[in-house]
Specification:
20 helices, about 500 residues, 3 domains, eight-stranded mixed β-sheet, FAD/NAD(P)-binding domain, alpha/beta, binds flavin-adenine dinucleotide, single chain
């Protein structure tokens, strides 16, 4: 039986990047993909956001030139009411901060996986890793409770010092090694419908943008590529789940506004798929003796909006670096590979899950709850009527009367959202940086009679005494540009 330093299971983004990193480190590496080629079996396409420029700028530069790419300079948000009528369109802004954050500002790209996955797999093979396609890995080789390699469906065995499981949401490796039976908590099913479109019409009508549709639906998005686009809708998998995946998509397709989009883009349905996507508050344990889980197999997609490809390649890189370190020490035991979890927790990946609990709760009470969404859309529409342009263009009455009527209407609707705010939005306050909270409080200070003469230090002391919730933000020992640690916040009361 041939022996490898590293065996990677899965030739998706995570697996390929792990194989590339391991091969770059001089490790004898092989990776397996069950599809005929990488990308064959995966969701049709994806959006890659701004942090790719921060962390993988050279890669992002190269990806721009692949055939299916459409640049993304903004996200357009479409609000649709319960009757399917398009009521409001808005977009993300290109503020100075966004424009100057990285050399490419807010830009991202959308790309089909048939381009992205093979490109990443080629990086790995160019670095020296061997790729076996059309090969389903069906089991792990266990020895003394430690993973020592894998077996394929057709009976071949491959021994390795370290196995990296990059086999996606339904990870066979996680199950066969006994790490988990099924996802505890959130997992979604995402039905997706892909359309071919007229490229010139896409340029004229869509431009460089992604679209999101919010209504009495589930989380629904439209990702736009060079000459095609897809729509998808998500929902938690629950025991009482009655909605058929295709029905979720049909709702969006039936919107008159979406129908006109299809018409103007000369869109023709091309492919229907439904994929699983982990969407968890916090990844369960990500290592065992001889094996590490990465990407979707580990539960890494972002707990707020399920972006997962940056997470897959970032965890793949960390796992492969940890493998190189463990192999150099001659120790790939469970104790040694705990280092992997320490490394991802200490970096940007770990930061993603600091508010995992709050984000998943917020999402399930809004975008994933169609009836709550109906009311929230109405509230958002009322809020939208209060901005300066709406005041000018509401000609139903005298302008100031219109403004007041909308304000009154919001206040009528708002009490229903008091509980929502308390339960789902207020817990996120912990994430406001202490230095920003201090600036807010200092702005209020001159307006409070009696305290304006206090020194800032005494003013903060007084507030900390009066408000348990604000006290953690004023603690000089707390890091000024990070969330207040959960234990400190909870100990002092919200
Ligand atoms: C519909 C949908 C839309 C999405 N949109 C976005 C987006 O816009 N942006 C974004 O960043 N993320 C998006 N995501 C999330 C993203 O696709 C995943 O987080 C990401 O693909 C995870 O990468 P991975 O390498 O861990 O797993 P995968 O991409 O799932 O790759 C796993 C690979 O392993 C192979 N495999 C599985 N089992 C075996 C086995 N036993 N033997 C051999 N090979 C095996 C599979 O064929 C596959 O190629 C989306 C997800 C879905 C479902």
């Amino acid at each position: 039986m041939e022996k490898w330093d590293v065996v990677v299971v899965g030739g998706g983004p995570g697996g390929s990047y792990a194989a590339k990193t391991a091969a770059d480190a001089g490790l004898k590496t092989i990776f397996f993909e069950r599809g005929r080629k990488p990308g064959d079996k995966n969701s049709s396409g994806c959006g890659l956001g701004q942090r790719w420029w921060r962390d993988y700028p050279e890669l992002m530069e190269e990806l721009q030139h692949l055939p299916s790419v459409r640049k993304v300079e903004m996200v357009v948000i479409k609000l649709v009411d319960e009757h399917g009528r398009l009521r409001y369109t808005s977009g993300t802004t290109g503020s100075d901060l966004c424009a100057n954050r990285w050399p490419h500002g807010m830009d991202g790209i959308s790309i089909y996986r048939r381009d992205l996955d093979p490109y990443l797999a080629n990086l790995a093979t160019s670095a020296g890793a061997e790729l076996r396609t059309s090969t389903l890995v069906s089991d792990v080789i266990m020895d003394n409770g430690q993973v020592k390699g894998v077996k394929t469906e057709n009976g071949e065995s491959f021994q390795a010092d370290v196995v990296i499981a990059a086999d996606g949401a339904m990870s066979t490796m996680a199950k066969k090694s006994g790490m988990r039976k099924r996802w505890a908590g959130g997992c979604t099913l995402v039905p997706q419908l892909d359309f071919s479109c007229n490229e010139e019409r896409m340029d004229e009508v869509i431009g460089n943008a992604e679209w999101c549709w919010f209504g009495s639906l589930f989380g629904t998005y439209q990702v736009n590529f060079r000459d095609g686009m897809h729509i998808g809708a998500g929902q938690w998998l629950r025991d009482d789940w009655s909605e058929k995946p295709l029905d979720m998509i049909k709702k969006l397709v039936s919107y008159p506004a979406f129908q006109s989009t299809l018409k103007v883009l000369e869109a023709k349905p091309r492919e229907y798929q439904a994929h699983m996507l982990p969407w968890v508050e916090y990844p369960p344990k990500t290592y065992t003796g001889g094996m590490m889980l990465i990407g979707d197999a580990a539960g890494f997609p972002c707990p707020l909006e399920a972006e997962g490809i940056w997470h897959a390649i970032t965890s793949g890189k960390i796992a492969a670096e940890t493998a190189a370190w463990a192999i150099s020490k001659g120790d790939a035991s469970e104790k040694a590979l705990a280092e992997y979890e320490r490394r991802w927790q200490a970096g940007d990946l770990g930061k993603e899950f600091e508010f995992g609990k709050e984000y998943t709760k917020l999402w399930s009470a809004s975008a994933f709850d169609p009836s709550a969404m109906e009311k929230q859309i109405q509230l958002l529409l009322e809020f939208s009527m209060l901005h300066p342009f709406s005041i000018v263009f509401d000609w139903g009455d005298a302008h100031m009367d219109c403004f007041n009527q909308h304000l009154e209407h919001i206040m009528d609707l708002a009490p229903e959202f008091g509980d929502f705010g308390k339960e789902y939005v207020a817990p996120l306050a912990r994430g406001i940086w202490p230095k920003n909270m201090k600036r807010i409080l200092l702005n209020v200070k001159p307006r409070i009679p009696g305290v304006r003469r206090l020194s800032d230090q005494n003013y903060f002391k007084l507030i900390a005494k009066l408000s348990k919730g604000l006290a953690p933000f004023l603690d000089p020992n707390i890091k000024q540009d990070a969330a207040v640690p959960r234990d400190v916040y909870e100990r002092r009361g919200k």
